[in-house]
Amino acid sequence: MAFDALQRSFHRLQEAPAVGRLMEGVVDFVVVVGSRSRTMERGRYQFKVRSYECGPDGRATLPTICNLLQEAASLHAASLGFGKGDFAAAGENISWVLTRMVVKMNRYPVWEDELTVETFPRGGRKIVAWRDFEVKDAKGETLGVASSEWMIIDLATRKIHAIPEKVFAANDPKNVPVLGLEPFAKFRFPEGGSGVPPLHFTAMKSQIDLNGHVNNVHYISWMLEPCESRCPAEMEVVFRSETFAGDEVRVETAAADGYTYHRVSAPDGKDHIVARTKG
What we know:
This protein has helices at residues 3-14, 62-79, 84-89, 165-169, 216-224; strands at 24-27, 43-48, 94-105, 114-125, 128-136, 142-154, 160-161, 199-202, 234-239, 248-256, 259-265, 271-278. It is an alpha+beta fold.
């Protein structure tokens, strides 16, 4: 089965009752020479908000925050021995893909602000792994938090790959989940839309990442294009299928239940993402 079909099957299973630029990376781990042993602490990475990452109001945008979260996740996974480079060194053509994320922001940073992104793995289930984040300002005050769900795919076959046991072993019980044990809600794009004409984009080569598909943050940029603000207080997004260079996508929005709902889909109607934002 392809990545999107397997992922849909997994999320149905979940619903069953039985079931930029790094300024300075400071990671709380110790490497023992000649060994793979590490203490399982949070990763802490410092960033500075650049002018090109801000909107007209001077604030960093949601896509900027998501880029920083993605970078911190990649760096910390590598520090713990299960990054993309570690897989490649072991002869495995596999990589992490983001499948769900919830972001809640108390306040967005502005141009030239210095930030610290703290991140830690918090276990998982079956073929998914979970990772949490805290975004803090230079004074240590929390600007926002996020929780995410990841899978591993085979880059040749695009099929789901089992999560290595060492990923689950990296879960430190001292780390309290930032949004609780079950941060992900069940929702769908409302039928009927909002009367706002959909937007259409073509995926470009410049939007393709190390995994050979459109990077997850570009979907967030697409979905926010019809909106007045690129700095919502809350976002939850589900990634359902891949997009490749040259593919056409359709962006729709709808308002319901106090949320703005977003959908990015293929011309045949297959969802690439569904999301909702508030604030």
